[in-house]
Amino acid sequence: MKYNEQPFGELVAANFFELDFSPTMARPEGTFSTLREKIVLDLTVKVLQVQQIRLAAGSVVTPVLSGLTPPVSPSTDLY
Q1: How far apart are CA 33 and CA 23, in angstroms?
Q2: Rounded distance between C-alpha atoms, residue 18 and residue 36, angstroms
Q3: What domain of life does the UniProt record list for this protein's source (predicted)?
Q4: What values do phi and psi take at 51, rounded to 5?
Q5: In a domain, 53, yes or no
């Protein structure tokens, strides 16, 4: 048995928002020599940890695998 499993991360989503601007006021038709860039990074991270649990004898565990197609259940209808 393993105890105290290390948590791990899973990247769920990442969004980048970027803005370029001149720190000094410039006329629309003028030129500028300094440019600033601001970037906002919006991350969604899922932090997970493997944990062991004790099950009673004869227990049936159905795993929930989000994002995956569930297995086809056996059909009782015969063609």
Answers
A1: 10
A2: 11
A3: Bacteria
A4: -130, 145
A5: no
Q: What is the mean pLDDT of each run of 10 residues along the chain (79 residues)?
A: 77 92 76 84 91 79 65 54
Structural domain count, the chain:
1
Assigned domain for 38 exists: yes
Determine the structural domain holding residue 37 and report its residue range: 8-48
pLDDT at 26: 73
Distance of CA 7 to the CA centre of its chain: 15
In a domain, 72, yes or no: no
Q: Which residues share a beta bridge with 30?
A: none
Tell me the CA distances in angstroms from 63 to 50, 60, 70, one per residue in order. 14, 10, 10
* Rounded-to-10 torsion of CA 45, 51, 56, 57: 110
